[in-house]
Amino acid sequence: xxxxxxxxxxxxxxxxxxxxxxxxxxxxxxxxxxxxxxxxxxxxxxxxxxxxxxxxxxxxxxxxx
Length: 65
Known about the structure:
Layout: H1 2-46, E1 50-52, E2 59-61
Antiparallel strand pairs: 1-2
């Protein structure tokens, strides 16, 4: 009988560990998704339009008028 109780305790412990790691994985995934979205917003907001200089062919930041 003690073996059955030990196996049940081990099984319950494994289920708890699995649930903990799954929740932790979801938390990290959400945090990374939020950081990725913030990086994309920052890239879009800080993008500078370029225009080609017809003489040199070099692209320079477009002057805002």
